[in-house]
Design brief:
One of its GO terms (molecular function) is asparagine synthase (glutamine-hydrolyzing) activity. By secondary structure, the chain is α+β, with helices and mostly antiparallel strands. It is built from 26 helices and 23 strands.
């Protein structure tokens, strides 16, 4: 498990947290102590380099967790040259040339820690979306304790070990906690796109935000946008591929990863995970074969869920369910074959408005038809209602008198220059709607997918490159909803790949919007009512994920977890064990409780939950004595 941890000030050391930022023997470990500053880190060997790097005539030392691609913007952008492990040295050189302000121009997937010994400060730098989060808490001894794994913090003796029930309710209901908040009391994430500087004298932080997204669409022809998008993708991928390295690609049956496959200038090893050779898997294999790429089906067998629950729970930072760290099971198969892992993640939320509420019509037994028309959101109340549309029912096993609507409403407020949601400032309600789902990245309900990939190997997704983030803010909503830059770009790079139908829609990628929309709905009706494409078991679907509701009924990982974690359910006063069991029994009887159950067993299996439950039980015993 690559990452960092440490503390500023205080009476203790970082040893209790170190085991939470190391995963494999081939990672590069680093330790540092200087006065009131202590830090431990674990890096992938390919990216590590010599850390810390030194700048400022030796007064400044800095670490880079992740990968810096270059600096600048527009025509002034300059990619980082040199070996893959050169990020820290590169940042040190930039510091010497421009001083601390150099961070505002950085492009990449990174978090930086900078100790300026002469100034008596430690600065924590996140990239634009905080793709590599650092969590922090104020210790009882006045220290500032930090770690890339939120669960690590409660193992530090100075940190309070308690849950915040409001934010826990958000996680259990929405599968995420927006903004920088977490369900751990007093634990927050450092701001995205910001430098947080801590004064060593009084351990007081100041925050300097160097970037926040601002949606300012530009009305220009779609063909111009497509040309710029395609050229940018081509430039990004050509800059960060190296003929001396072997690349793996997580290849789905859709268009996002297929665009990466089409644009990358060398063969890749394609990986796809599924429970069977579904339509999604067959499409991915066909795409790999069309390009002459090696294809690996990583099959999820009958025991996958139980193993994934145990293996993945320590990785989670209260965003996502355990099964969304989907490739952890196949760590050896992936890392034995490739040096760098790539994916098409985040293209959907950036360029297809995937997270925006749209209009849909129920046609009864025929199904639902979704229309590419966004729902009007004119107030904070409208926004909250859209977030909780399918999730405002009480959590069956959570003892609370408040609704998740209450919690969201109390954490989103208008301010003079915009809106603050869960500690993060957005310039307007429109910006919150556009970017609140992934600014910071931990706000995503599937954040564990990409963050678990970071643990496997050096990992990149081209769509979070600054140049594409800049372009995204200019793409009109009508193009995001009713055109598709990603699909059209595949056709620009490789017409043969674009001819392969999308696994979900059944349509080739080069069609116009109207043809694609009609064909998608016709194919959906045909597949549901006219063609027998039944999977071999009810919980196996044709999409990328199993049918979780059927899976809970077919396998025993839920009741086994509830039984094994019975002591945790009993020790935490806000959990109702009988309510949890009834939730499961009701699901077996036909109710749709899989989301509640997945949230619960993910939470119960987290080491931090077990630790706090044990301490809560011990405190209760002492009080009775």
């Amino acid at each position: 498990m690559v990452g960092i941890c440490g503390q500023v000030g205080g009476e203790y050391d970082v040893d209790p947290m170190v085991e939470w930022i190391g995963w494999r023997d081939d990672e590069r470990a680093s330790r540092y102590e200087d006065g009131d500053v202590a830090l431990a880190a674990s890096f992938h060997e390919l990216l590590a380099g010599d850390q810390p790097a030194t700048a400022g005539d030796g007064d400044v030392v800095l670490w880079v967790w992740g990968d810096v691609y270059g600096h600048g913007s527009g025509d002034d952008y300059a990619p980082r040259r040199g070996p893959p492990d050169g990020s820290a040295a590169y940042c040190a050189d930039r510091y010497d040339e421009y001083g601390p302000s150099f961070v505002s121009e950085l492009n990449g997937d990174f978090a930086l820690v900078i100790h300026d010994r002469a100034a008596g400060t430690v600065s924590f730098v996140t990239d634009r979306l905080a793709t590599r989060p650092i969590y922090h808490a104020r210790g009882r001894d006045g220290s500032l304790v930090f770690a890339s794994n939120a669960q690590a913090l409660v193992h530090h003796p100075a940190v309070t070990e308690r849950f915040d029930l409001d934010y826990l309710q958000e996680y259990l209901t929405l599968r995420r906690v927006p903004g920088v908040k977490t369900p751990l009391e007093g634990v927050e994430e450092f701001q995205p796109g910001a430098v947080t500087t801590v004064d060593l004298e009084d351990v007081s932080p100041t925050v300097d935000r160097y970037w926040r997204p601002s949606y300012q669409p530009v009305d220009r022809p779609f063909s111009e946008l497509l040309e710029e998008f395609t050229e940018t993708i081509d430039r990004v991928l050509s800059e960060w591929t190296d003929d001396d390295l072997d690349y793996g690609l997580l290849l789905s049956g859709g268009s996002d990863s297929r665009l990466v496959q089409a644009a990358i200038d060398q063969p890749v090893t394609a990986f796809h995970t599924a429970g069977w050779m579904s339509r999604e898997a067959r499409t991915a294999r066909r795409a790999a074969e069309a390009r002459g790429d090696e294809f690996h089906l990583l099959k999820r067998d009958e025991g996958y869920e139980q193993r994934a629950l145990e293996r993945n729970a320590p990785l989670l930072n209260f965003s996502s369910w355990f099964d969304q760290a989907v490739f952890q099971e196949f760590e050896d198969e992936i890392t034995d074959d490739v040096d760098v892992l790539a994916s098409g993640l985040n293209a959907d939320i950036l360029f297809s408005a995937h997270h925006l509420p749209t209009l849909s019509v129920s046609l009864g037994t025929i199904g639902n038809v979704s229309f590419p028309i966004n729902k009007p959101i004119g107030s904070v109340d409208d926004y909250v209602a859209a977030q909780t549309e399918e999730a405002d029912e009480p959590v069956p096993y959570l003892r609370t008198s408040r609704s998740v609507t209450d919690v969201l409403s109390e954490n989103i407020r208008r301010v003079e220059d915009g809106i603050v949601s869960h500690g993060v400032h957005y310039g307007s309600l429109r910006d919150l709607l556009m970017y609140g789902y992934f600014f910071p990245m931990s706000s995503k309900s599937a954040a564990a997918f990409s963050r678990s990939l970071i643990q496997l190997a050096p990992y990149r997704s081209p769509f979070i490159d600054n140049r594409l983030l800049d372009l995204q803010q200019q793409v009109p909503i009508r193009y995001q909803l009713r055109r598709n830059l990603v699909k059209q770009a595949v056709a620009e790079f490789d017409a043969e790949l674009a001819e392969i139908p999308h696994a979900g829609t059944g349509m080739s990628l080069h069609h116009s919007f109207l043809v694609d929309f009609l064909g998608k709905n016709i194919n959906g009706f045909r597949r549901k009512h006219l063609v027998d494409e039944s999977p071999p078991k009810p919980h196996l679907g044709h999409g990328p994920w199993p049918k979780r509701g059927e899976l809970v009924r077919a396998r025993s990982f839920v009741p086994e977890t509830l039984e094994e974690r019975e002591d945790v359910l009993d020790a935490l006063p806000f959990l109702d064990r009988e309510g949890a069991l009834e939730c499961y029994r009701a699901h077996l009887d036909g109710e749709s409780n899989a989301p509640h159950l997945y949230s619960l067993i993910t939470f119960l299996e987290m080491p931090v939950t077990e630790r706090i439950a044990r301490l809560t039980g011990e405190n209760a015993v002492r009080e009775r004595q």
